[in-house]
Structure formats: structure tokens, C-alpha cells
Specification:
globular; 6 strands; 6-stranded antiparallel beta sheet; alpha+beta
């Protein structure tokens, strides 16, 4: 629904005919997509590098603003950031996919897809470790989370919403 005033325009600063070989990094492509459930969704692809988590947070914040869900932004941004960071660190392939789906009146699902078949696992709490707490944060902030195997890799998803809503 490009052109609809309620749709974000993530690619308006991308010059026509210029691909990823440009010296300056361009904002990733993400756009509304049809979901299997009929729920509104946005999907994007990020290069698998250290900037992907920040770009995922921007996408989540923009989509939730379009859907008028400001109370979900902080938790959904953190969940997206942790899931994308895990994919960047542990997956393979040149990019990471992310879909944000509105699954209820005040509930969204953030799903991150990568090219690795290895499933994530919750680690024991090590307070001195610099890494390893991302899935604990996802578990604490989300109403539910899980992993769906894909033909090439997996999709790790988490649902964020207001308590008692669907």
C-alpha cells in the first residue's frame, strides 16, 4: 500500500539504480507484506553485520508508530535487537531477515530468520559474562517465544504485548 499516509516510507532516501556496492551504507529495504494469518506485517532484510541490530530497532519503532502502539516500542526494540544480534553472531549467510506482525490489538510478533540450522538455547545466568544473556532478556520481555525450523535455517520469534491482551 505504498503511498498510503499511514505506511512508513523506508526507502525514500535510496537513489534509483544504486545497489549495496555504494560506499555509503543505505537504509535496509523493508515493506508491508501479506501474512499467512491475514494480520498486518512488515518484513525487512539487514546485512549481517554490527549495524543490523540498530536498523532492526528503527524498523520496529517505525512500524509500531504506524500501528499506534507506543507502549510496546521499548520492549519490542530490545527483543528485536537481541534476536538480530544473536543471528549476526551465530548464523551464516550475508543477511538476516526480520518480520514484525501485529497479532492482536496490542500484541506484536517479532521474528528473525537466519541461515543457520543451530537452535538457540537459554544459558545459565553468569553475572560476570559479557555475552549470553540475550535470550534471557527475550524470555523476560516477551509473552512467548520460540523457534521455527525453515528450509534454510530457522526463524526465532517472540511476542510482545500488554498483559492480558490478545
Amino acid at each position: 500500500m505504498s503511498g498510503d499516509r499511514n505506511e512508513p516510507e523506508p526507502d525514500t532516501d535510496r537513489p534509483a539504480g544504486h545497489g549495496p556496492t555504494r560506499a555509503k551504507r543505505l537504509r535496509p529495504t523493508w515493506h508491508p507484506v501479506a501474512s499467512a494469518t491475514g494480520c498486518p506485517s512488515y518484513s525487512g532484510v539487514f546485512p549481517r553485520d554490527e549495524r543490523a541490530a540498530g536498523e532492526a530497532r528503527v524498523m520496529v519503532a517505525t512500524v509500531l508508530a504506524v500501528w499506534h502502539l507506543p507502549r510496546l516500542v521499548a520492549d519490542a526494540e530490545l527483543v528485536a535487537s537481541e534476536l538480530v544480534t544473536n543471528a549476526v553472531r551465530h548464523a551464516r549467510g550475508p543477511d538476516v531477515g526480520m518480520t514484525v506482525t501485529r497479532t492482536g490489538h496490542t500484541k506484536v510478533r517479532v521474528a528473525v530468520t537466519d541461515g543457520s540450522p543451530l537452535l538457540p538455547r537459554l544459558r545459565g545466568a553468569d553475572l560476570l559474562a559479557e555475552t549470553g544473556r540475550g535470550l534471557r532478556l527475550v524470555d523476560g520481555l516477551s509473552q512467548d517465544w520460540g523457534v521455527t525450523p525453515c528450509v534454510r535455517g530457522k526463524s526465532v520469534w517472540a511476542e510482545v504485548g500488554e498483559a492480558g491482551t490478545g
